[in-house]
Amino acid sequence: MAGWWVAPATPALATTIGVIRLRRDGRVRDSDGTRLSADDLGAVLGERATLVQFSTAFCQPCRATRRILADVSALVPGVSHIEIDAESRLDLVRRLGVVRTPTVLVLDSTGAVVKQAAGLPRKADVLVALAGATSEDR
Amino acid sequence: MRADPRALRFGAAVTSLVLAAVLVTGSSGLLTFQVLVFACGVVWRSPYALLFMAVVRSAPTYTEDSRPPRFAQGVGLVFGVAGLIGYLAGITPLALVATAAALLAAFLNAAFGFCLGCEMYLLVRRLLPAATTEVSQ
Q: Which of A46, B11, B28, B41 is geometrically suited to a Cys-Cys bond with B48, CB 3.0 to 4.6 A?
C-alpha cells in the first residue's frame, strides 16, 4: 500500500489550502459591474447602495455575515441588505458566477455590482467598499 | 438542533487521526468503523462529538446550526464508502483517493474551521440540470 506517504501528504496539502483560504477569505475585490434590477433581486434596491448576500442552509459563516451586513445597513443611511437563498435562485448564482456561500455583492445606487467578496467579510472592509460605491454617485 | 462547535472541531480532529491511520495501515476494519461514525453523524450526532460532550461538561459560549456539519458528515460518508469499496475490492487508487479526500476535508475542518463539505453543496447544486431548479423555486 502506498498509503504511508498519502497519510502525511494529505494534511500538508490541506494546510496549504487552508493558509491560502485564510488569506483570501472574505477579501473584498472589484467586480465587473454587472447591473442587477429589483426584479432580478426580488427586492427593492437601496437608495444609495445595496448589500446582496447569497446564503445556503449548509453554510456556517452565513449567520455571522448576516449580522455584519445588517449592522452596516443600519449604520449607513440609504443602504439596504438583501439576503438571497442561493439554492432557490440558481439562475442568479450561475449568472453571477457565485461558487461559495456566503458571497457578498456591493451594488451602487443603479444596481451595478461594484465589489464582491466570497467568505465572511470584515465589517471595516464592507464599510470601505460602501464608501467607494456611494461616493461614485453620478 | 444546535451543535457545540468545540465538539465538532474535536470530532474533526479524531476523524483526521482515524483516517490517517487507515491510510497508513490500509485497515478496512478501521475504515468501516469510521464509516459507521459518519453514518451516526448524519442521522443523529457524531459519536466523537458525544464523547466530547460527555467529558467536557461546560456549556459552549455559542452554538451552531447543526445542518451544515451534518451535511458534511454525509459528504464524509460518501467518500468513506467509496474508500471502503476500494480497499475491499483491492482498487488501490480508489481506496487512497477517496480516503485522502475525506482526510483533507476533516483536517481542514479541524485545523482551520473550514467546512469543505458545506461549501461543496452549492457547487453540486449548480451542476445539477436546470429542470431540477425549476421545481425548487
A: B11
In whole angstroms, give the CA distance from residue A29 to residue B133: 29
Distance (Å, whole) CA A75 – CA B95 = 53
Half-sphere CA count of A18, side-chain side, radius 13 A: 18
pLDDT category, A33, cuts 50, 70, 90?
A: confident
Nearest to B112 among A7, A21, A98 (CB): A21
Domain span at B73: 2-136
Structure confidence by residue, pLDDT tens digits, B12-69 = 999 999 999 999 999 999 999 999 999 999 998 899 999 999 999 888 888 888 888 8
Q: Which of A54, A60, A93, A101 to mutate to test the interface with B (most CBs of B within 10 A)?
A: A60
The per-residue pLDDT for range A45-65, each reduced to its tens digit, is 999 999 999 999 888 889 999
Question: In angstroms, rounded to a whole number, what is the distance separating the alpha carbons of residues B10 and B12?
Answer: 5
B90 touches chain A (CB under 8 A): no
Inside any domain, residue A11: no
